[in-house]
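ok trying again, last paste got cut off:
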Amino acid sequence: MTDRAPLLRAEAVSVRFPTSRGTVHAVDSATLDVGRGETVGLVGESGSGKSTLALTLMGAVQPSDGAIRFDGDRIDHLSPKALKPYRRRLQMVFQDPYASLDPRMRVERIIAEPLKAHRYGDRAAIRARVAELIDAVGLPPDAARRYPSQFSGGQRQRIAIARAIALEPDMVIADEPVSALDVSIQAQIVSLLQDIQARLGMTYLIIAHDLALVHQIADRIVVLYLGRIVEEGPADQVIARPLHPYTAGLLSATPTVDSAGRKRLVLKGDPPSPIDRPRGCPFHPRCPVAVDRCGTETPPLTALADGRKVACFYPGSVPPPLAALAAARSPAPPVVPVTEEPRS
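nice, full thing came through this time. structure:
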């Protein structure tokens, strides 16, 4: 829980997609707050529901249950016309800079699109604003007259960022904004996002699968597994002492300078199908410390005394530094819960 007033709030949001094979449970009763001026990192493996939740928060996907509020106003039920004023305040940067930009349009026109859609000003004002944005994201002035194919992946992502911040929105959702880029370029884009936030006081929801990367930029980390939030807390605390075994596994998989010789927690198998989800805790088939109870009961997302949240009957039972964890089948004594997150 953040002490800032929530700018964006998802209230027990679920997203289900009917298919010929059954119902896909993409997001399961996710409750998430993002405070004004805050950066929240949403992490999880591929297929965990991160992008679906992001698109639902943007209004591109309708939730099956729950509500989404932006600055106190409920927006999940709005028509495209009624949602348009909120588009000005809530923007998105997509994962693939090669697919998110129209290759037939010059950069000037790409960045000008939101300015024209929201009647920013006359042609001269829009052109001046585009030039200002190109400079702000570190591109050369002649970028305006060039096409996306004439830029590198990192430069294309800068173009996408310029388009997202053109109207100075209150919040940007960035879906894996650096995963398609080289490591050196990733650092540049993260630094750019931080600089923009410092100048504009922007709010971020950063979606990624790399805990170490998220730790660089996020105030809080939210961990998603099979559509459910399984852990949430201040970034430093989550990295220093993950409470959920899944978070510990993600952290163990992150390369560090001292990785050599370190005994790692390797998560067994792949995430279960969102169509045929396991009974009980959805993580228990892969959990190194699961017991019989985990296969029959679903742990609620529970607030602990230190303000963190975890959906595990035995939080903290996978201790750092992740030594001999695969053999550790006996859970630690449970942490005493304070409150439970309501589920729809």
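cool. Residues 97-168 form one domain. The longest helix spans residues 183-200.
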